[in-house]
């Protein structure tokens, strides 16, 4: 499992030999014929297996490229020096002994502001020893897998142990991303390396800041080389590279990919023939289920340390990114830390026998059936282990019957350096190893040097660090992700045209038409982003929901269509807005604001049909008026999901109106959630409250009742210009599926009455929390103002 997840970074495809289909072989072709094509698909290339097969593909460097590639002479000198150093191995480096830590985590969320649930987090600690002409020996000292969704067994810790990072071997690429092997020339089927020969056709270079490092013998001068791509593309990077000015050796780096990789569009850029074959086979069964699959590395930071006064070796490596699969967002992070005990010290591998990697069996048509039968048997055994049909899960690795550890021997990605990995047989000891950081992550900032990384991220995540302005061809987006269903529009169909403009700018036009109301909607936007800070200027005519857009999400649309439960009040608006969102990679604090001037008016209901009971034919009567105002929101999370966590959300909004009374309004809402996990038990307390000043129009009031507030009551049971909600819940069980008991209290009405004099709305219930609460099913018993039982299903619920 870890091997699959560890490559879920910037989407890429590896091509290489594969067996030919005998039916497609030309007459007389020998059965040992080997064809080329796609052999693996990954997102990121970190940990991929060697150089890509076949002739490289690149743009020829012209005199025009050379004339515009360098903004100053120093930049040219830096690039040429770095290019020479990149291909020059230092023969004086003969070995090292290092303690290596690695952590990989990936989560999932279905809402833009939703909490990312932890799918898996893998941690490993190892002693890594490398000797020239001998290879690498990895002694795993600790390994641990954890998940917020599924129960992880001790057996899985052995799988995590095989991913220990190797900081250096001859020919390893300094930028870490891609095949991991130095390539002398550009190959645009993968990441276009900014230092490789021919990169001038893809990048422009500028010298930047300087720095100095004082050692015992001398002062080392560092110089920054700023790299900017000529156009926005999935395989080019933007960032800063720092080099030892005298040696030309990379010292630190911070970069990000200029654009996401769109699986359905960009796969042809990697291998057009093989992509045609693969996409043809996948399009019918997969494309309707996954209309959009994209991945992007948002920040890669590398730090090297100077050892023995002459060797620059990796000290810390980090990669942050996100995978977008239809409506699901999957953020990931890969962190590596290295602490060197010896560089060119005593040869600790001298007494070991040579590392011999078993030769792989050739992949041909003749032996493919036997290989397939072996693979099928392995899959059957693995599936039976997972489902508990046999008791072999308790069996140790065969090597453990005669030894305290088992071994794995393979080549490094260069295909030349043998790597022997030894893993202790005691899986429980692996997970409890003191070599691993604490499970609650209290000192992770020190272990993985987060503070130093934050300053590097600031160099690459900046509005000033962008590709050149070069508009690209517009792309059309449509499919299930732009479908929705509600009682105003009925079935609403949408499509969008987006265009990358370069320099961080993107333009888009989104159109939508409801089949029931037949009112066209449109939004035109120009956006500029550095992936941490996003500015958006938009013009729109659209249907929106009271409070937020949750009723217009895919989950709510499914409830309306299947069960006749449309839990939203709607109104129409048309106007202009300017918005800003700040979501730093190195912090769990988010801030956003929106400045708007718009006309709001009522929306009538036009559809009540559903597969279940008919939807309610009701809606609020929105005040028809013009509004101009500002909305601000901020959220923050403290603590750890495996222990005590505190989440806060604050929303403020104020607006002036041109209604007859010419009154404005102001509103404020606070949500606080305190959760605690302790083994199989978990509990939480959620508190929300809101109040206002001035006269709130119906479309800006708060409404309680329904799946997202009190599931035992119908949506909109109470409403007003003030509200409060409280929930207590306790649960026990596996993270994958956890039963829960809960109780809710709430009220909404006139703010002058919030102190008392009324009986609050209430319910109690029992439910199931699937995938760490990402999906919830509740059976709630309303206690007041009615007494009834109600079943509800929700996805990515905030409260």
Chart the SSEs and their pairings.
Elements: H1 2-6, E1 11-19, E2 34-43, H2 63-69, H3 73-86, E3 95-108, E4 117-131, E5 135-146, H4 154-161, E6 203-214, E7 219-229, E8 237-244, E9 250-257, E10 261-262, H5 263-270, H6 272-286, E11 293-307, E12 311-325, E13 328-343, H7 368-387, E14 405-411, E15 418-424, H8 427-431, H9 444-447, H10 450-460, E16 475-478, E17 484-486, E18 490-502, E19 505-514, E20 520-529, E21 533-545, H11 554-563, E22 570-582, E23 589-602, E24 625-639, E25 644-657, E26 665-678, E27 681-694, E28 702-704, E29 718-720, E30 722-732, E31 737-749, E32 761-770, E33 775-784, E34 788-795
Parallel strand pairs: 5-15
Antiparallel strand pairs: 1-2, 3-4, 3-13, 4-5, 6-7, 7-8, 8-9, 9-11, 10-11, 11-12, 12-13, 14-15, 16-18, 17-18, 18-19, 19-20, 20-21, 21-22, 22-23, 23-24, 24-25, 25-26, 26-27, 27-30, 28-29, 30-31, 31-32, 32-33, 33-34
């Amino acid at each position: 499992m870890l091997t699959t997840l560890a490559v879920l970074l910037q989407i890429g495809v590896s091509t290489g030999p594969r067996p030919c289909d005998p039916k497609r072989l030309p007459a007389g072709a020998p059965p040992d014929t080997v064809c080329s094509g796609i052999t693996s698909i990954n997102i990121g290339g970190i940990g991929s297996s060697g150089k890509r097969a076949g002739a490289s593909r690149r743009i020829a460097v012209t005199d025009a490229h050379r004339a515009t590639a360098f903004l100053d002479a120093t930049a040219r000198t830096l690039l040429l020096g770095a290019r020479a150093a990149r291909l020059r191995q230092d023969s004086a480096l003969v070995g090292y002994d290092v303690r290596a830590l690695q952590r990989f985590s990936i989560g999932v969320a279905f809402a833009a502001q939703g909490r990312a649930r932890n799918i898996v987090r893998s941690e490993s600690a190892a002693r890594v020893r490398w000797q020239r002409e001998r290879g690498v020996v990895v002694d795993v000292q600790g390994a641990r897998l954890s998940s917020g969704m599924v129960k992880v067994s001790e057996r899985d810790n052995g799988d995590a142990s095989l991913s220990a990072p190797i900081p250096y071997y001859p020919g390893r690429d300094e930028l870490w991303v891609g095949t991991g092997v130095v390539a002398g020339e550009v190959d645009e089927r993968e990441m276009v390396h900014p230092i490789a020969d021919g990169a001038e056709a893809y990048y422009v270079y500028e010298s930047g800041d300087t720095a100095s490092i004082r050692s015992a013998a001398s002062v080392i001068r560092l110089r920054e080389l700023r790299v900017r791509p000529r156009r926005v593309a999935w395989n080019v990077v933007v960032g800063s590279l720092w080099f030892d000015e005298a040696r030309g050796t990379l010292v630190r780096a911070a970069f990000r990919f200029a654009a996401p990789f769109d699986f359905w569009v960009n796969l042809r850029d990697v291998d057009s023939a093989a992509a045609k074959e693969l996409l043809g086979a996948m399009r019918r069964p997969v494309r309707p289920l996954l209309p959009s699959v994209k991945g992007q590395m948002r920040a890669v930071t590398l730090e090297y340390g100077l050892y023995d006064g002459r060797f620059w070796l990796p000290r810390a490596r980090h990669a942050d990114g996100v995978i977008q699969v239809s409506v699901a967002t999957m953020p990931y992070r890969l962190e590596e830390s290295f602490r060197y005990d010896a560089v060119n010290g005593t040869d600790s591998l001298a007494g070991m026998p040579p590392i011999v990697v078993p030769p792989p069996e050739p992949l041909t048509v003749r032996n493919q059936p036997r290989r397939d039968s072996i693979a099928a048997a392995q899959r059957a055994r693995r599936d039976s282990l997972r489902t508990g049909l046999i008791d072999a899960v308790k069996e140790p690795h065969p090597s453990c019957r005669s030894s305290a550890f088992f071994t794995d021997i393979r080549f490094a990605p260069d295909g030349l350096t043998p790597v022997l990995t030894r893993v202790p047989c005691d899986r429980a000891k692996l997970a409890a190893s003191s070599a691993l950081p604490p499970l609650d992550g209290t000192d992770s900032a020190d272990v993985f040097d987060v503070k130093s990384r934050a300053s590097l991220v600031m160099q690459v995540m900046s509005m000033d660090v962008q590709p050149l302005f070069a508009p690209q061809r517009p792309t059309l987006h449509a499919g299930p992700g732009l479908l929705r269903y509600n009682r105003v529009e009925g079935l609403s169909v949408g499509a969008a045209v987006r265009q990358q403009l370069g320099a961080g700018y993107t333009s888009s036009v989104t159109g939508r038409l409801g089949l029931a109301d037949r009112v066209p909607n449109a939004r035109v936007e120009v956006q500029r982003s550095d992936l941490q800070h996003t500015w958006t200027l938009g013009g729109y005519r659209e249907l929106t929901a009271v409070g937020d857009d949750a009723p217009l999400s895919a989950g709510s649309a499914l409830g309306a269509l299947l069960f006749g439960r449309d839990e939203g009040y709607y109104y129409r608006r048309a106007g202009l807005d300017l918005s800003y969102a700040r979501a730093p990679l190195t912090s769990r604090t988010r801030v956003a604001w929106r400045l708007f001037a718009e006309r709001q008016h009522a929306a009538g209901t036009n559809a009540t049909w559903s597969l279940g009971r008919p939807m309610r034919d009701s809606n609020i009567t929105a005040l028809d008026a013009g509004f101009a105002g500002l909305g601000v929101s901020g959220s923050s999370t403290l603590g750890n999901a495996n222990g005590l966590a505190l989440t806060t959300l604050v929303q403020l909004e104020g607006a002036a109106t041109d209604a007859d009374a010419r009154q404005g309004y102001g509103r404020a809402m606070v949500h606080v959630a305190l959760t605690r996990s302790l083994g199989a038990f978990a509990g939480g307390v959620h508190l929300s409250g809101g109040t206002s000043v001035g006269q709130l129009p119906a479309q800006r009031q708060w409404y309680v009742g329904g799946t997202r507030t009190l599931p035992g009551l119908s949506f909109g049971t109470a409403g007003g210009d003030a509200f409060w909600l409280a929930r207590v819940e306790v649960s026990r069980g596996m993270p994958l599926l956890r039963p829960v008991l809960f109780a809710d209290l709430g009220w909404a009405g006139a703010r002058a009455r919030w102190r008392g004099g009324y009986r609050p709305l209430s319910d109690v219930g029992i439910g199931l929390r699937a995938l760490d609460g990402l999906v919830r099913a509740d059976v709630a018993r309303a206690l007041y103002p009615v007494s009834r039982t109600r079943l509800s299903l929700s996805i990515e619920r905030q409260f």
